[in-house]
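Instructor's aside before we start: the two examples that follow are unrelated to each other. I chose them only because their records fit on one page, so don't look for a connection. First example below.
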Amino acid sequence: MKRPSALKKLGKKIKKLLCPCLRQPVELDMSSTSKSAAKAVGFTEADCIKIKRRFDDIDFDLKGEISYGDFLEDINEARSPFTDAVFAMVDVNGNGELDFDEYIQIFLSYCMFNQDEILTFTYECFDKDGSGTIDEEEFRLLAKTVNNGAPTFPGNFGTALEEFDSNGDGLIDMDEFRELNRVYPMVLFPAFRFQDNLQKGSLGSNGWVRILKRKAKLARLEDYRENHKGQLPPVSGYIGFCSKLCPCVYEHPYNDVLEALADSSGGDPLEM
């Protein structure tokens, strides 16, 4: 099927902004695995619907899949070994296209990474031989491709390698890689920009702050339960009573994560 012209794409975007009431309702068809993964990291159904809208906007020919090229165009990124690794992480069948189940996995994985997880992922992308270290050739490829061919180093790659190779073995290990990022943050900035572009275009900065707070809350509660025989931290009798008597007015402090907690325990965590 012929792809829509740039003019048609622009018209669709304008209609989306000016006439949201004309947009088709979203059909959220997710596998049970994706639903469980979404709950586990703190996504609500509304969050998933917003991401589905973004997927539908990219899927101009309405075939239910988006190509690698369309994915990169949407986030204004050029193809590189780094973007290949991100795409391969979710392209389960390896056909070069993503259905919605595969697409949302990007937001459930890469978009949830903290800074160190992004560094680790980037490092592993270029550790081609799986040795746990990066040699000069791998280091050269990493610096060029991640930073679009213009790495911010004084002198040349050899000089940079010597600067961060603290043990003098001619290789960069993970700790040395973290030090590289601390001294020259712009070298790996595109890896963080990649995440930022995905987040802003889907749920917005505030939406991701809310999700990450919910994820942290889930982690704290699950840690507490592991050390207290499955029990949640106690709440005051007043709050507990009011939240049961009139939940529309008095919200239980764990309501936003109860479904995810129930999934992880196989029952209602408030009844344990």
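Example two begins here.
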Amino acid sequence: MLINEFKRAEVPFSVEWRHIIDPCRIFHRREPRDLTAALRFYCRMEHEGAHGAEADVLAALLVLDGQVERYEDLPRTIPELHNAMEYPDIVDPDGKFVRREDGVIVFTFSDHSGKAVDEVARTDPGFLEWMLKKDFTDEAKTVAREALARQRAQQAIPIHVD
């Protein structure tokens, strides 16, 4: 929701290197339902204005407060909550790319899912060029553009054999 609002307001925003806490994810692991049911369960409240941005954000905050009160084993800090959610290190808002523990950025979609971006730049640069022409986020296009630039730079380096 935040990503779309920032985009709509033309404010640059990246999820890379951010800790993400999603009360809905905690809820679905503990009590599989939806935000309206979560608000009812954790806060004994009805979700007035459901699916409105302000009402949904307030409901999510109230649910998170209720979850922290209810589950003693739930981490209490933002970084610990983020890690408990087992989120991959998301590089772009749509999650088309994630950063592995070794720092390598890999695809999460298409036939290239799980492949390193630099490998695809080497073996199928046309795919990254296609991405640059399509409706991907600026962050995803930056990943593609930078991988292509690294590949072109490597090709331009002469190799001397003695």
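Residues 11-84 form one domain.
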